[in-house]
Amino acid sequence: MEKQRFLGLDGLRGICAVSIVLYHCDNLFHPGPIFQHGYLAVDIFFLLSGFVIALAHEARLTAGQGLGAFLAIRARRLLPVFWIGAAFNIAIFLGMAAGGYYPGYGWALVWIVIPLTTVLMLPAWGTGGEFSPPMMNVTWSLLVEWLVNIAYAALLFRWRTRSLAILAGTAWAAMAVTGYFTERGWCVGYQILPLGFLRGIAAFTAGVVIFRLHRAGRFARLPPLSPELLLTLWLCIAVVPTLTATPTFDWIAVTLLSPALVVLLLRAEPRAPGWFRPLGELSYPLYVIHPGIILLAQKTPLFGLNQAPGQLRALGVFALCLAAGWILAQAVRPRPRLRTATA
After folding, report:
1. What proportion of the chain, given as a percentage, has pLDDT over 90?
2. What are the pLDDT digits (tens) for 199-235?
3. Residue 176, C-beta contacts closer than 8 angstroms, at least 6 positions apart
4. Residue 315: left if φ>0, alpha if ψ -120 to 50, beta else—which one?
5. C-beta of residue 296 within 8 angstroms of C-beta of residue 92
6. The predicted structure's pLDDT at residue 184
7. Contact predicate 43/257, CB 8 Å
8. Cα(95)–Cα(88) distance, rounded to whole angstroms?
9. Which helix (H) or strand (E) holds 41?
10. For residues 221 and 225, what is the distance between their CA atoms, to the nearest angstrom?
11. Angle, in degrees to the nearest 10, between helices 7-24 and 311-332
């Protein structure tokens, strides 16, 4: 029977969520983001999604599972967490708007358009390019994941591994060209949604390719490195400082280093510690619930950080984000059914 959970990938997913939170802590610890390449964690999310979706559903889809059944399973797993996180962030946003922190937004935009588009993971029309102000634009990646999932379950699962590899390579090459053309590197998506989809389909299909190669035993000869070391390597990538766009570094990190980390973590799975699992369980709740807390810290005097950075207080905000993510994870965690005694 195929192994259904990989602790090493759980650990990577959790560390990537943490790096996203720290990337969003702009001007809290010091001027600028503390993890200046934390945005590249989104590509690892897409990569891991491709691997996990193929692991859980490829055999079912091949056996005749329909697109509707596939989407229903995904919706039951993802939407409750997202809607709770979205409601939390929208409530904070509306409170801030009522307090005058969004003076350029009209009544209808604040109270109707932005909440509705946030819940539906759609661009917030009228905000000048924002995708979801209450959630610091993270919804673009969630929408892209849904679109890529649909493409996979409707068509791509039938493709041969070589064809998927060509698709991933072509999309990554297009992203590399785009990174130079826009002078933003890989930091595109929420402003130009088609580029976000291109970014998502490339990493997702690469994840499917990795799953198939792993299933075929192609990585068995690789050395089993320390999983903790591999997660540290990702943090080293995410924390690389920069003052300008880095399209070459982004391309290397996304197309070479990130797949290599996933492959090596698969090889190191027997050595993965148990505490990687709660990291993985925390990742999605933390991703969807942290933006409102950071917005409060950045724009209001609640934490005393809206005027100047402060490392201790910023650390407290970060800890609050982790606590909120953990509470959400516990709230939606499936509870074991009680067995009733029978005569």
Report:
1. 79
2. 999 999 999 999 999 999 999 999 999 999 999 999 9
3. 247, 251, 255
4. alpha
5. yes
6. 74
7. no
8. 11
9. helix 41-62
10. 12
11. 130
Please tell me the distance from the alpha carbon of residue 234 to that of residue 19, in angstroms, as a whole number.
9
pLDDT of residue 336: 60
**Could you read off the pLDDT of 308-330 as tens digits, one per residue?**
999 999 999 999 999 999 999 99
Give the list of residues 6+ apart from residue 244 with CB closer than 8 angstroms, or none: none
Distance from CA of residue 13 to its chain's centroid? 8
Q: Which of 2, 8, 3, 4 has the alpha carbon at shortest distance from 225?
A: 8
Token reading at 326: 């953990």
Q: How far is CA 226 from CA 270, 272, 274, 324, in A?
A: 10, 8, 14, 30
| Assigned token pair, 65 | 């599972």
Q: The tokens of 120 are what?
A: 């539906």
Closest of 42, 70, 28, 92 to residue 250, by C-alpha: 42
pLDDT-based confidence at 343, cuts 50/70/90? very low
Q: Got the DSSP string for 1-40? A: ------HHHHHHHHHHHHHHHHHH-TTTSSSS-SSTTGGG
pTM of the model: 0.94
The total of other beta-carbon atoms located within 10 Å of residue 127's CB is 18
Secondary structure of residue 337 in the 3-state scheme: coil
